[in-house]
Structure formats: structure tokens, C-alpha cells
Amino acid sequence: MRRLRIELKGVVQGVGFRPFVFRLAKECNLRGYVINDSAGVLIEVEGDKTEEFLRRLHQEKPPLARILFQSVEFLPPVGYQDFEIRESQEEGKKEVLILPDIAVCEDCLKEMQDPEDRRYRYPFINCTNCGPRFTIIETLPYDRPNTVMKVFRMCPECEREYEDPSDRRFHAQPIACPMCGPKVFLHPTGEEGEEALRKTIQALKNGRIVAVKGIGGFHLMCDALNEETVAELRRRKRRQEKPFAVMFKSLEQVEQYAELTELEKALIISPERPIVLVKGKGGLAPSVAPGLKRIGVFLPYSPLHYLILSSLDFPVVATSGNLSDEPIVKDNDEAVEKLSEFSDLILLHNRDIKRRCDDSVVKVVGDVALPIRRSRGIAPLPIVLPFKLKRKVLAVGGMLKNTFAIAFDDKVILSQHIGDVENLSTLEVFEESVKDFMELYEFEPDVVVYDLHPRYETTRWALSLDYPKVGIQHHFSHILSCMAENALGGQVLGIAWDGTGYGTDGTLWGGEFLSCDYTSFERLFHFKPFKLLGGEKAVKEPARVALSLLLELYGESALSLDLPSVKHFSQKELELLLRAYSSNLNAPLSSSVGRLFDGVASLLGVKQKINYEGQSAMMLEDMYDYSVKDTYPFEVKGSFIDWAPTVEGILRDRENPSLALSRFINTLAKVCRYVAKEVDIPKVCLSGGVMQNDPLVCKIKEELKSFEVYTHQKVPANDGGLSLGQAVYGGVDVKL
Ligand code: ZN
Ligand code: ZN
Ligand code: FE
Question: Residue 646 above 50 pLDDT?
């Protein structure tokens, strides 16, 4: 049983929403309350059917109600006796905030499908309840002349709607119609409007690849059932195995290809329209997500997507339009220049995209929705802190999956997903985006916070600025971000496991047990460091990690073992690696659990070389067997957790990879239990990219039943959430 806390904003007052919530809660046998507040509606329900409640809240809401955004948190129950409608709180102060882009609403969809309506089949239909926001605003206040819509002069009919307080489009800034608004057209063939749409749809049916301009950038689209086409898209994009997201026309269509839980259904139909990572049932082209059971699914969110998808009887791959490792393409010229080589046609339109915004990604981990990427539909909504910050902070984030943040008062505004800031073009986009935020919010920081890694581009950039600045350790900021979004005070035990982050001793950390408050941390326990042979190369080639573990265990004789990790290398490579190992040349030490997972994947013959970050971890996650209950031994030596007995156990079981992997995950959870008992701090925070592993997090929660365990529900556990922790650190008490 759990408690669900839902905050809703949008048209949720004066439309019969509270009586509806009351009825639905009763039907689902839930207890709690509903209340109107200045920002919208707040609901708390507890009982067994909270997830059904959440799904039906969207599916059965009163016809006039519009949910523009929601924040959902699963919490421990508090023992409500009944369900009640509570009296409204006083009017609070209205916040000036920039809304995210909102998926097209049902009213607009209905009009778009009505041949009598003047916006019949109009791809840019919107109203006050839906449409683009964040991606079209140039400056505040949010008025039409301050958006990219300023170039379209409203026709008399649109103007009348815009001025009429009783109209659904009263002051809808992006208001438009076929007479006066944006238009679609095809490159290179030049068709416009309906004809452009018709050709796009025909091309998709014929197995062609089409680039389509969306809300925050371009997608590359093609038939997700057609293996030849999807494989061709991979060839053109030079993207070997990283999974593609798939867009479906309806929830019913998703259910033909995936097994969905109630919570997953609620996420798929939520107004944010994220990509949801769910368990596939097969049927899609094998090249959509090679070697993985999970697939990324989402529904159309712009009217243009609806027009395309509703004419197709198959789902489409919808992957961001970019060269690999480069930012998503957003401008027409750029699209023609960069996407022509990937696509047979480009469906353009003349409404500019002011700023890029990639699709958001979410996954259910340990029974709650964990954001993997917090972007379109969510950014730039603030994270509200339980306290006020002492100064204004610019937090630059990490290197991979970068987001940055600006923070003031009790709010942290995280940027949209920027991407991996590891080359010039992404650094440029990062810089531009920071500048964009500072202008948009008229923001000057009192302090700039950066990650301690001397080779992060974002760190170098921060150090070049003229503001006071302070660095923070990577895993400490992971835990602070988990504390902040859960509104925790005092001291916590932070379990921060990830790929790697720079430690205060110059080694690469990533298997950390830290005691933390908002101002400082202590490294209590960590996994025994091992050598990453070849440094960065070991990240891409898990066999190097495995070989390092074997050398540590068996010395030079490891090189003659009959194991996939050894046989992966030639004799000459083995000699070079041995030399690196013994001389410590280009073999940095790491305590990373992410890398341990890689090593295990290699030892079990699952993956020797990876194609994209996190690949082996995702493949291992699929192999977990919930019926396996036992563990391997581990040893504690001082502040070290020694993995040697664990790895020996894995080697003994290597003929049965699923068993070995399951016992490995169970062992990691047992290690958490050991440390938590030893340290004895009641609150435990889980963060870092490894904490996106569903069976691992479930198991840890099980082992830590007697503790209060907190995970992420608002920002990613991966490096996309770092900027929140950094922002809080800079704003709390740090000495400058
Ligand atoms: Zn609408
Ligand atoms: Zn018009
Ligand atoms: Fe990290």
C-alpha cells in the first residue's frame, strides 16, 4: 500500500474536478483528500489502487478539465481514514513561470478532425490549454510579440477569438489558423499543406525515411515494423545499436507491442507525453532496439504528429534528427544541410523553434516513475525546495547528459536536456543555452558551481567565468539532488553508484557510501578500487575491466584462462594490457559499480565492447531472475568493500549467466544493508546512474526495509540530475 501525492495545474478549478476526484477515489477504494490551491489542485490518496487511480484520472476526467502539468510522488502511507474534499487554502501568490510545451488537447483534436471546423486538419491548432510555450518564447512577459509567432499577423477571425474572454483561445499566444498561421511544406519537392502531408504519409508507407519538424526539434521517422528501413536508418545515422524510440497512434496500439503496468499507462497518456521505457512483446523490427527487451514508446504530442500517425496503421520510429553525438537539429536551413543525407524527404514548417528541446524519457524503477531525461513537456518547471537559498546560483552540471540550472529563492530551474558536452558543437550549444536562460530570466548569479573533474568541458568553462565559483564532488551532488527533491533535512546515508565521477583523491569514484548534509560529506565506505586499463578505453570495452578484475584475482595466470573476456583480445593486446596493469600507465583506479557491472557483463559473455553508454547494464537488467534469492560473499576491509569473493562466485556460475547476474545484484543489495546497519543513519538516499536499474533498486529497497529509503522522482538519478545538487550546494552555506 502506498500514498500518492499529485499536484495538478491547468483548467482544474470550476469544472467539477473535485467531485470527480472524490468519486474516483471512492471507486478505487482509496482514502485521502483533494483540495484547490492557488496553483491548481492537490490530491493525496492512499490504498492499493493508486496507479489505477492515476491512469483513470487522465482517462475519465470531466470534459472541461485540462491537465497542463502534473507532479506525481509516491510516498509512505500516513493512515487516512476516509476520502474528503477539503476547504480551499488562501490565495497564494501567483508565480511567474514559463510553462513547458504542452501536448495538443482533446478539444483541439476534435476540432482538427471535424470537416466543418475552420481548423480541420490544421497542423498548428492550439488553444490556451495546449500547444508550444517554452520552445517559442523569446522574452518575457509571455505575449505574442515576444514569441516566434510575432511574424504571423492574426486574421480577423483569430483576433476575435483571441480577444473574447469566453473563448477557449482567449489570449492563446500561439493562436493560428490555415488563413493566418504557419504552414507545412516539403523539401526538396516543394509541395505545401495537404499535399505535403499526403506525400509524407505515402513515403512512410513506402518504407522511406522522413525528417519531420516537431516542437523542440526534428525527428527522423520511418516504419517501425519494416526491418529493411530501420536498418537503413541505422546505416545512414551511423548508429549501430543504441535503441530508437517508437511513436504509436494510441495507447491501444502501444499495448499490441508492449506489456504495460497501470503506472506505465498513466505515464504514456500524461500531458508531458514522455518516451516511456517498457517491456516489449515483440513484433517491432529487430533493429529498433537490438538485444534489448525494453522499448521506448510514446504518443503523438503535436497536431502534426497526429495527422501523420492517424493515417498509418503501423507505429513509426521517431528518433531525434541529428548527427550522432550532436545536438538535435531545430532550424530549417540546418535541417536541409544536415538531415538531407539521412532522409528521403524533409517535412518543414515556418514556425521557428526558439530553443531546442529533446523528448523526455521516463522509466518505472522500484515502483515509481524515474525520469531518465527531463526535457520537453517538463522543463523549465522549477523544483521547489523546502527552504530559501542564500544566494543566486548558476550550476553548470556535469559532462554527459548535461543539464544546467539557475536557482533563486526556493526554486531551482533545471534546463532542458543539453546532451553530452564533450565536443565543440555541444559546448557551443551549452554556452548558448546558459546565455539564453540568463537573458530570459534576467538572471545574474552570485556564485557558479561546477563539478571537480578538471577535464569536463563545463568545468573548464565555469572556471573561465568572472563570478565567484566553487567546485563540488560529483557523488556528493548526486546525493544532494536526491535530498533536495525529497525535501530532506539533516543527515543522510547517500549511496551514489554510477559510471565514474572525479573523486577528491584524484581517482575515479562510483561505488560510494557517503554521509551527507547540505554542506559537507564524508566518504564512509566504497568498493575496492580496480584499474581501468587504458582509461577511457575501458569504458567502451568492458572486457578491459573484466581483465583487470581477473589480473587482480589471479595475477599473470589470468591471461591463460579460458574466458570470453580473455579470448576477446589477441596475444599482443594481452601483453600490452598486462604492461599497463603492472606499470600503472594509463590505468586509473576506480571504485565504480557501473564499471563492475560492465566487467560482469564481459565475464558472463554478454558484451565485450559496447556501442553506447549503459548498454551492458541494460542488457544485464533484462536477465535478472526474481526467483533467485541467494547471494555471493563479499568482504569488508576497513572502508573497502572487497568484490573479490563476489567475482569468484560469478566465475563459478558463469555457465548460467542469468543466475550469476541475479546473485550479483542480490549481493550488491546485501552490501547496502550491511553498510546501512553499520552506519545507522535512518534516512538513505539512492542516486547515480546505476540506480536506474530496476531489479537492483527493488532489491535494495527490500534489504533496507527498516530504513527510510529515498529515490528520485523529479530529476534523473544519472548525471542529468547533477545540476540540482550543485545548485543547492551553492545556495546553502558554502564559504566563498
Ligand atoms: Zn487545445
Ligand atoms: Zn487566423
Ligand atoms: Fe554520475
Answer: yes
Give 654's pLDDT tier (boundaries 50, 70, 90): very high
Q: Can you tell me the distance from the alpha carbon of 662 to that of 438, in angstroms, rounded to the nearest whole number?
A: 47
How far apart CA 589 and CA 609 sit, in angstroms, is 20
| Nearest-ligand number for the alpha carbon of 510 | 3
C-alpha cell at 441: 530570466
pLDDT one-digit tens code per residue, 668-708: 999 999 999 999 999 999 999 999 999 999 999 999 999 99
| Ligand nearest the Cα atom of residue 498 | 3
- Mean of the per-residue pLDDT values for the chain? 94
> Which-ligand-closest: CA of 509?
3
* pLDDT tens column, 298-325: 999 999 999 999 999 999 999 999 877 7
Q: What is the pLDDT of residue 46?
A: 96
Which of 217, 188, 457 shows the shortest CA–CA distance to 354?
Answer: 217
- For the chain, give me the number of helices (H) and strands (E)? 23, 31
Model pLDDT, residue 736? 53
Q: How far is the CA of 107 from the centre of ligand 1 (A)?
A: 6
Cα–ligand 3 centroid distance for 547 (angstroms) = 24
Residues 353-368 pLDDT 10s: 999 999 999 999 988 9
> How far is residue 596's CA from residue 497's CA, in Å, rounded to a whole number?
10
pLDDT tens, 556-578?
999 999 999 999 999 999 999 99
The protein residues having their C-beta less than 5 angstroms from ligand 2 (an ion) are: 155, 158, 177, 179-180
Residue type at 419? Answer: G
What is the Å distance from ligand 3's center to 133 Cα? 31
Confirm if 726 and 449 have CB atoms less than 8 A apart.
yes
pLDDT range class, residue 70, cuts 50, 70, 90: confident
Ligand number with the minimum distance to the CA of 156? 2
Q: Which three cell numbers stand for residue 422?
A: 564533450
Round to whole Å and give the CA distance between 412 and 393. Answer: 9
Helix extents (H) in 152-287: 156-163, 193-205, 227-237, 251-257, 262-269
Span from the CA of 509 to the centroid of ligand 3 (angstroms): 9
CA 121–ligand 3 middle distance (angstroms):
45
Q: Which ligand is nearest to the CA of 271?
A: 1
Angle subtended by helix axes 615-623 and 657-679, to nearest 10: 100
- Rounded to the nearest angstrom, the distance between the alpha carbon of 130 and the centre of ligand 1 is 4
**CA dist., res. 396 & res. 451, Å (int):** 8
CA 563 – CA 550 distance, rounded (Å): 10
Distance between CA atoms of residues 486 and 471, nearest Å:
23
Q: Please say if the pLDDT value at position 89 is more than 80.
A: no
All residues at 6 or more sequence positions from 212 whose CB lies less than 8 Å from its CB, including other chains: 200, 218, 219, 220, 221, 304, 305, 308, 318, 346, 347
Task: Kindly give the distance from the C-alpha atom of residue 188 to the centroid of ligand 3, in angstroms, as a whole number.
Answer: 43
Residue 442: CA count within 13 A, CB half-sphere: 5
In angstroms, rounded to a whole number, what is the distance separating the alpha carbons of residues 61 and 105?
13
Question: Whole-model pTM above 0.90?
Answer: yes
